[in-house]
Design a protein that fits this description.
alpha+beta; Protein Yojf, Chain: A; globular; 4 domains
């Protein structure tokens, strides 16, 4: 990739480079951020000098794009990124690309643009008398807006609502995570001073309602209003009450399971299992996993066995707090599991209230596309359950992912499932809502996390715990809030 940000262009040379690129493309298209790609046809593109300015004009039977070209910002075989003049003297971006080479990405852009237009129509039908004031779908890294979602603003008089939607083609994981982007969009609009933003309208495919519905029940209704809509492939729209969207889809396994493995498999695992520091983990289906400082080094189910190809002595040297190979995959993989393995041996480093608590990991599973297993579950001295969600790096989904596990633990607690299944033997569990602790290296809190956390209901008792960056050498709490 060549960058030309600091090169003052000769306009005739600039014109020649652009035309050369277009002529070399099999299927040239023009694209601007958030816009639908415009196919370039030979007799529907001009690039001419006008009063000392290089002007590009491209069109089809529906629209035209006229831009003053300033420079080439980036150049590759697949695309040419141009700097263009915008009103107010600001520089915008226009991309020329060969869709034959970038076909998959270009098709996704086209799909998203079509869905943005479809979303605007859904809003107009659902909210007669309101104006769809603004739509957007492009990615914005600075504000943590994802390209998976269509965003809009609805206006009637001085009142505005934020709106967000996800297409069926984006997949279930994107649908499950829409609320994070929705809250960031709502907060951005409020901060930009665009009048009163009363709340957030959320549109999800009809088969992907449950994750968002569950989360909405635990947002602060005094800060904003929220409306949830399900839409079908035929664009039939139904307004939903999150409280009536069915039970939480969750399963609480037994605290102790038996491994479903053959004697032959057990004998194959024995040398690894005997290595100092190796821990056993048994999944819900009976598969046995062996881990060293959180790293999977062996797995067995029935008669099938898989082993780490690196000798255990080498794994121990690489996956060490003072490793000489900190870039080796055996060191960098599964950092949260490593953090988990440290905390399972001594939770009191987070709080003395957890000293002596039984600790359970990976016990609570959830249906759907989101990560199915929670990190750690413990109980404090008063008998109150503590949900501990771990992150080793920045993650915009941290607050709502933690909320997912918290609300599932609360659901099982209210039904007496923990006592009935034999969790926390000898301890009387408090009926108070569980505590939610979000644990992460102190310098790795994602900027968007604070925004999302402020919209959670006061009924969710969240504590953020920032730990030391070199936590592999021993975990220390730097701050708690």
């Amino acid at each position: 990739m060549m960058s030309m940000a600091d090169v003052a262009p000769d306009l005739e040379d600039l014109r020649r480079q652009i035309l050369t690129f277009v002529s070399a493309c099999r299927q040239p298209v023009l694209k601007e951020p958030g816009g639908e790609p415009l196919p370039i046809v030979a007799d529907q593109l001009t690039l001419e000098m006008q009063n000392g300015r290089l002007m590009l004009d491209a069109w089809d039977d529906r629209r035209s794009v006229v831009r003053r070209i300033l420079r080439i910002r980036q150049s590759s075989a697949k695309a040419l990124t141009l700097g263009v003049h915008r009103l107010g003297g600001k520089e915008g971006v226009l991309t020329l690309a060969d869709s034959a080479l970038a076909g998959g990405a270009m098709r996704r852009d086209q799909q998203r643009q079509r869905f943005l237009e479809r979303f605007a129509k859904l809003l107009a039908l659902q909210f007669p008398g309101w104006t769809v004031e603004r739509t957007a779908a492009e990615r914005d890294l600075r504000r943590t807006f994802s390209e998976h979602y269509a965003r809009a603003v609805l206006r009637r008089g001085q009142t505005r609502w934020a709106a967000i939607a996800v297409a069926e083609t984006e997949g279930e994981a994107a649908a499950a995570h829409i609320l994070t982007d929705g809250l960031l969009w709502l907060d951005h609009l409020r901060a930009s001073g665009r009048g009163v933003i009363a709340g957030l309208n959320i549109f999800v495919p009809e088969l992907s309602v449950q994750p968002t519905a569950s989360r909405l029940l635990y947002l602060n209704s005094e800060l904003a209003a929220y409306q949830l809509f399900a839409f079908s492939r035929t664009d039939a729209v139904q307004a939903l009450d999150p409280a009536n969207c069915g039970n939480i889809q969750t399963t609480l396994g037994p605290p102790h399971r038996a491994a479903v493995i053959s004697q032959r498999a057990r004998e194959q695992l024995q040398p690894v299992a005997a290595f100092p520091g190796v821990e056993e983990e048994i999944s819900g289906d009976g598969a046995l996993t062996l881990r060293y400082r959180g790293l999977e080094v062996a797995r067995a189910f029935e008669d099938q066995v898989s082993l780490e190809t690196i000798p255990m002595a080498d794994v121990a040297q690489i996956r060490a707090p003072l490793s000489r190979s900190p870039r080796h995959p055996a060191y960098t993989r599964a950092p949260e599991r490593w953090m988990e393995s440290l905390l399972k041996t001594d939770l009191s480093v987070l709080s003395l209230d957890l000293a002596g608590s039984p600790v359970y990991s990976q016990t609570l599973s959830a249906a759907g596309p989101a990560r199915g297993l929670m990190d750690l579950l413990a109980v404090d001295r008063t008998g109150r359950l503590v949900v501990i969600e771990l992150k080793a790096d920045q993650d915009p989904q941290l607050p709502l992912q933690g909320l997912d596990y918290w609300l599932r633990v609360k659901w099982h607690l209210e039904r007496g499932d923990f006592a009935a299944r034999g969790y926390f033997p000898g301890r009387v569990l408090s009926a108070a809502p569980p505590l939610l602790w979000l644990v992460f290296p102190s310098i790795r809190l994602h900027p968007s996390n604070e925004v999302v956390l402020k919209y959670l209901s006061p009924a969710v008792p969240v504590t953020r715990m920032g730990i030391n960056e070199d936590w592999r050498r021993g975990i220390k709490v730097i701050f708690r809030a």
